[in-house]
Amino acid sequence: MELRNKLFLGTFVHSKALDELEYLHNAAVCVDTTGTIVAVEVDCDEPRAREIVLPGLGWDGAEVEVVKAKEGQFFFPGFIDTHLHASQYPNIGIFGKSTLLDWLNTYTFPLEASLADPAKARRVYTRVIRKTLSHGTTCAAYYATIDVPSTNLLADLCLSHGQRALVGRVCMDQLSPDYYRDASPDASLADTRASIAHILTADPTMSLVRPIITPRFAPACSLPLMRQLGALAHETSLPIQTHISENKSEIALVQSLFPRSATGAPDNSYATVYDAAGLLTDKTILAHAVHLTEAEADLVRARGAKVSHCPCSNSAITSGAARVRWLLDRGIGCGLGTDMSGGYSPSVLEAARQAALVSRHVVLGADGRGEGEEREKLSVEEVLFLATRGGAEVVGLEGRVGGFGVGLEWDAQLVGLGLVGEDGEVGPEEEEGDVDVFGWESWPERVAKWLYNGDDRNTKRVWVKGRLVHQRK
Ligand SMILES: O=c1[nH]c(=O)c2nc[nH]c2[nH]1
């Protein structure tokens, strides 16, 4: 499908810095046929854009598609979900009182294994892509399963639906049930190479979809497998995703499985085990990092690995409250992950909201007596940074997506809030949502109301690389 040049008009909100949102009012953003932003002008209505900006770009105004935000609407960068399991989507909300290791065996491995059925995989993966797009997720770092054909199918479906994605075939050769385990390190590596080859054939320039090397987590991977995957990352320069320090029993298991005598590492901390296998790189996404030690944080920072903070999951399966400020203070890049289905929600907005709330529990301390520091609290601006620009850094797309600026690609959502009229009703052509705006709120207050009460009813349209990929009915 041939894309047209586009002119977007209205209010644009995006992160300028960790604690600062920028509001561009009465602005024009021009996006060319490659999906790249080529002009950003403020104080620019449509006549002025047609008179000055479009001719300056050499564009024929008659050919340009114009998209205007209505009153009460604004453009916001697409969300980046830095950690989710596409294969676990049918289980969201189903976790009972379980914690990580029993949750994996009870709920997760049986479902993932069942997705070797291609029809079931197609149904689940189509739905998770549609659902996340409808919540404004323009880029997702997906775990699939150990099965190669269905992992490849997930990548194909991301491409055909136009969602930017990193897609990983899950590697695991130990401590999981016989019915769901790689036969050997060599078999795991061969299957991983096969999936990488498929994805690189489907999108040779990785313009939308790229493979990501995915050792599930240290307990499920033998040292030879982790070493081979580290070598593969070195050989291919591909990114890596895995889990780290999510749960205290998991950490104890790692320490018993990988003593210093086996790894040759200076200690047996979780981060050191990955480092000894060559899995800590500047393209590694570490999900959770709830219980990292000071020395591990130093190592993660030194290697340039990033953290995906998954607050919904950390609360749901009782993993703990990750200290995001502590990670940021140590210079570790952070983004947000829904972590379905440890996490119960497909929405990065929900993850951002929960990140803000969990940070208040970090202030309160483990016993809730308020012994933490006030500055642990994350603001609206900060969690929305993590959801966009922070996420872009985590998935290696900083400078390409995450904000509005010349040279960035147009991955964006049009957000609409309910404007309450004099009669106390929202306009007839507006959909009821939970965000009611009365008109006296400042723009930062409107955005705060969206963060705390918004949902997919507010996500009117979504674009990836300039292409419209979701429109609310
Ligand atoms: O939240 C999580 N979800 C998973 O699927 C998983 N596997 C290992 N560790 C994990 N943590």
From TrEMBL:
Its EC number is 3.5.4.3. Pfam families: Amidohydro_1. Transmembrane segments: none annotated. Its cofactor is Zn(2+). Pathway: Purine metabolism; guanine degradation; xanthine from guanine: step 1/1. GO terms for biological process: guanine metabolic process. This is Probable guanine deaminase. It comes from Parathielavia hyrcaniae.
